[in-house]
């Protein structure tokens, strides 16, 4: 009898383990609250629990390369394509998008509100040397920020003390900006869901360069045989479903949508 009970426990333990997968996803996916809307619904529909590792895009990719997760959900296309090209990921599937926005003190001492482009925004901030908080964490947001500085022909390595790379996630970086009354670039979803705005407000948005695409990539089980490719595939299929689309498009704060679904099977 004891042996039968032990056998049942072993079987159910294996089943329980098989029903959990690991997903490395960006801090913005979590800070926005969308993860709390999507992942429980996925579990209800499939029985699969998603263990979420909340990290920046760079760290998510490193976790995928090491086989420490079954899939990644990130937002830096060049890094994603390199990940897939190196066979660490099986393919890249676009799921949803929003945009980056420029936040700053309501007095707007650098006068970015009337800028004609995101590049001009950064040029104005650099020219006036007003405090700017950078995530500085190799996240998708950080990568985009560095790309924009480069496009503006400006290089943070040579900036003075006004440029503060905090090496933190989106929420913590926004808190730093709020405490310093500083400028910062953030994804719209994290900003809308951020509670400690203080004297900050959204000052600039709308440049096509600020487009922010999120993509899902299953980790390649040929590289790491322990990867739960079937569970990762089921999550991908579910994220492309009508149910997920409805949740994503209807996830709003104060009537404003945080993400727009654009996935295709």
Beta content comes to 15-25%
**What is the rounded distance between the termini?**
49 Å
* CATH level-4 homologous superfamily of the largest domain: Periplasmic binding protein-like II
The general outline is globular
Q: Which structural class matches the secondary elements?
A: alpha/beta
Number of helices: 11
Q: Taking all residues together, what is the mean pLDDT?
A: 92
Q: What's the helix-strand series?
A: HEHHEHEHEHEHEHEHEEHHEEE
CATH architecture assignment of the largest domain? 3-Layer(aba) Sandwich
Residues in helix, %: 40-55%
Q: What is the CATH topology descriptor of the largest domain?
A: D-Maltodextrin-Binding Protein, domain 2
For the report, how would you describe the main beta sheet?
10 strands, mixed
Number of DSSP strands?
12
* pLDDT < 50 runs, ≥5 residues: 1-18
CATH secondary-structure class of the largest domain: Alpha Beta
Number of individual domains: 2
User: Rg, please?
Assistant: 20 Å
Brief summary of the model shown:
This protein has 265 residues and is of the alpha/beta class.
Describe the structure.
The protein is an alpha/beta fold and 265 residues long. It folds into 2 domains: 2-97 and 214-261, D-Maltodextrin-Binding Protein, domain 2 (3-Layer(aba) Sandwich), CATH 3.40.190; 99-210, D-Maltodextrin-Binding Protein, domain 2 (3-Layer(aba) Sandwich). Helices cover 42% and strands 22% of the residues. It has helices at 2-18, 27-31, 34-46, 57-66, 77-85, 118-128, 140-151, 170-180, 188-192, 229-239, 242-249; strands at 20-25, 49-54, 71-74, 93-105, 132-134, 163-165, 183-187, 200-204, 211-218, 252-253, 256-257, 260-261. Helix 7 (140-151) links the parallel strand 5 (132-134) and strand 6. The protein starts with a helix and ends with a strand. Residues 1-18 have low confidence and may be disordered.
């Amino acid at each position: 009898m004891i042996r039968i009970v032990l056998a049942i426990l072993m079987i159910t333990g294996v089943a329980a383990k098989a029903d959990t997968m690991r997903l490395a996803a960006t801090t913005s996916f979590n800070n926005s609250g969308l993860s709390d809307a999507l992942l429980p619904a996925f579990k209800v529909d499939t029985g699969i629990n998603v263990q979420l590792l909340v990290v920046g895009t760079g760290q998510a990719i490193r976790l995928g390369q090491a086989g420490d997760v079954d899939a990644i959900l990130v937002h830096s296309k060049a890094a994603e394509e390199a990940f897939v090209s190196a066979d660490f990921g099986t393919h890249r599937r676009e799921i949803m998008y929003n945009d980056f926005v420029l936040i700053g003190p309501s007095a707007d001492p650098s006068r970015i509100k009337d800028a004609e482009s995101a590049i001009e925004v950064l040029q104005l901030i650099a020219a006036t040397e007003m405090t700017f908080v950078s995530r500085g964490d190799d996240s998708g947001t950080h990568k985009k920020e560095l790309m924009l500085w480069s496009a503006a022909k400006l290089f943070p390595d040579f900036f003075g003390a006004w440029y503060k790379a905090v090496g933190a996630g989106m929420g913590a970086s926004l808190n730093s900006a709020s405490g310093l009354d500083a400028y910062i670039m953030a994804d719209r979803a994290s900003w809308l869901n951020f509670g400690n705005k203080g004297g900050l407000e959204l000052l600039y948005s709308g440049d096509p360069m600020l487009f922010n695409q999120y993509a899902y990539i299953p980790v390649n089980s040929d590289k790491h045989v322990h990867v739960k490719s079937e569970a990762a595939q089921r999550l991908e299929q579910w994220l492309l479903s009508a149910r997920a689309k409805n949740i994503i498009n209807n996830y709003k704060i104060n009537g404003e949508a945080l993400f727009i679904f654009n996935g295709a099977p």
